[in-house]
Amino acid sequence: MKNTRRRSAQKKGDRGRPNLISKMPDDVLVMILSLMPIKDAAVTSVLSTRWRHLWRNLLRLNFDGTKTLKKMVKVKKLCDIERAKYIKQVYNVISSYYNHPMVQDIRIRFDLDDSHSEAINDWVQFALEKKVERLELDLLDKNYSVRKPDENYEFWLPSSSMAGEMFSLKKLFLKGVNLNETTLNIILNNSPHLEKLYMFGSGLFPRIHVGEQDINLKHFKLVDCSGFESISLYGFDLVSFIYCGPEVQFHLSDLPKLKELDIGEVSVGLENNVFSQISSCALNLQVLVLDMWSPQKGLDVNAIIKFPNVKKLMLVMGAEEDECLLEFTSIAQACPRLETFSISLHWYTPTKRRRKVRRVASPHVHEHLKLLEMIGYYGRISDVELAVYFIENAAALEKIVIDPCCHASGGDFTTEDFLKREQAARSSAKHQVKPILPPGVDLVIL
């Protein structure tokens, strides 16, 4: 009886409280809805008469199917059913926007391939007709892995007359989407406001040439793409270029505003003399990331060029063997204004060897270096050598951050096995680095 009275009193109290959401103006409510996947936003139409059409005012359409994809991984027989449901859902939404003048942002995230080209083509046409500013087609499979290029959807433009509809496009993200040379040129030539072009797992064409055009592209990123042999970028105001994939030839010239360069050459190392390929843009760089998966193949120290304005340098390296990595500090020495040095050591079953800690024969004072980051620290002699080198040679050092996280994957080890290795690495870092830490330098072990 008491519980019944309490619940009754609570209901009366709830009715007496002001409904803050109902007092919010429509534009604020639309802003809140824009943070949701479109599927969830559309459900709010059943709340009341006011909410019935509110979601149709969204300028950002996020068709995020991540939750469904996780179910598809567990139950494969759901794949075809869920793909059909997803395609229907997108069509239902865009049909509701038939009379809407514009949509700023459209994101497609689902496991779709070239067999679904007809539907995706319709969505691309809708996006262009609505003067979209940001378009993302994330069609990677349910495991978020890269397909064979001939299975990817190929980006399609409805007709040459649609080129003018790309005037508003500012950001284009393509994942698991192929792009041919003609289409790329149409996009670049007809999108004067396009600043970001990111491609992941895309099939491309043998020789990529971007330049000698009145283009506004500022940020260009290629990750795990295939089908090309060389990349030429020249004659425009590019600010950042990120490449991660197999070995290709780079031709970079007349890029006066290029500040950030990230070159990842998986399982290749530096034997292709990447320094000579990027020398023309070395003067203005401020951030440099080099991915060297095979450091044991050696480094030609004489090939290293000067980077007079680089303030942040990151080296990503395969580190299975406990080989001395001190020769790679030569790259840091080529950056006289260096403020942050990061090294990411990728290992799976790292070898530990018993040997004495080596020191560089010719010490170099890093006058401006304030931060040392060591990712993948395991407590091997090669790890300690790097830490000792920078402690002894960085006059302005303020902080050392050690992250023992292992970034390798695969094999028979469980998550528990990796966690044990990371915990052992934390203990090693504490006992190896802390005793030699200079006064005033902070040590952070993640």
Please describe what this structure looks like.
The structure is a single chain. The chain has 446 residues and is of the alpha/beta class. It is 28% helix and 21% strand. The protein contains 12 helices and 19 strands. The protein has helices at 2-16, 20-23, 26-33, 38-43, 66-74, 79-96, 117-129, 181-190, 274-278, 329-333, 381-393, 415-433, and strands spanning 60-64, 105-109, 134-138, 153-154, 171-175, 177-178, 196-200, 207-211, 219-223, 230-234, 240-245, 249-253, 260-265, 287-292, 312-318, 340-346, 371-375, 399-403, 442-445. It has a 14-stranded parallel β-sheet, with helices on one face. A 3-stranded parallel β-sheet has the order 8-10-12. Strand 13, helix 9 (274-278) and strand 14 form a beta-alpha-beta unit. The longest helix has 19 residues, at 415-433. It is globular, with a radius of gyration of 27 Å.
